[in-house]
């Protein structure tokens, strides 16, 4: 149970980062849209190609005086392979492939079968639906709200699954034009994380 909880926490963070990859990867398509609608966003997401981004994440935990910071790289290979490599402060690798999530940290390795974790499966399905630009599937697992303008917009995802909602309250992506600048996840226990993403430098 302890390993399952630990993997769930890490995988939840994985979800938010991957959503950041998704929209940044199609940023050039979104930048030309004058009005921001879900249909336009989903159409652009459906064109997602293999992508790589850098991330810096700060976690705000109620029991700590200062945020915990980590950084690294994220990769997406269509249709269902997602990988996160944390470089600092300690190396860590998380891989999502088909219905399995594997976490490697040092000599330790954990795995979760999504078929045995309905709450985590709901979160992961949101990734796949987003990557595919599948609005219908996305809305099966989330209450989706897109607000703002081309210059300043927000996409809020609220889990509709009760078990998932007991872990994650809301995921909010913020951006300007075709770029995601920030991804915030609010946990049900009050803790939160804020992640900034950017394209790798040439």
UniProtKB/TrEMBL annotation:
CDD domains assigned to the protein according to its UniProt record, in alphabetical order: LolA (cd16325)
InterPro entries from the UniProt entry: LolA/LolB/LppX (IPR029046), OM_lipoprot_carrier_LolA-like (IPR004564)
Transmembrane segments: none
Protein name: Acyltransferase
Keywords from the UniProt entry: Signal
Endpoints of the signal sequence: 1-33
């Amino acid at each position: 149970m302890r390993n399952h909880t630990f993997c769930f926490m890490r995988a939840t963070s994985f979800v938010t980062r991957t959503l950041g990859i998704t929209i940044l990867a199609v940023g050039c398509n979104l930048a030309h849209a004058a009005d921001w609608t879900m249909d336009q966003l989903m159409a652009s997401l459906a064109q997602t190609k293999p992508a790589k981004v850098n991330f810096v994440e700060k976690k705000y935990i109620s029991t700590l005086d200062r945020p915990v910071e980590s950084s690294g790289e994220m990769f997406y290979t269509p249709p269902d392979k997602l990988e996160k490599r944390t470089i600092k402060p300690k190396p860590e690798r998380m891989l999502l492939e088909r219905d399995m999530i594997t976490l490697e940290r040092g000599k330790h390795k954990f795995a979760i079968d999504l078929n045995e974790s309905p709450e985590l499966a709901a979160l992961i399905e949101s990734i796949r639906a987003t990557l595919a630009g599948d609005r219908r599937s996305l809305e099966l697992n989330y209450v989706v709200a897109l607000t703002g303008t081309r210059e300043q917009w927000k996409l809020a995802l609220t889990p509709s699954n009760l078990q998932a909602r007991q872990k994650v309250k809301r995921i909010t992506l913020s951006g300007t034009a075709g770029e995601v600048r920030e991804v915030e996840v609010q946990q049900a226990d009050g803790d939160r994380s804020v992640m900034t993403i950017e394209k790798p430098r040439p």
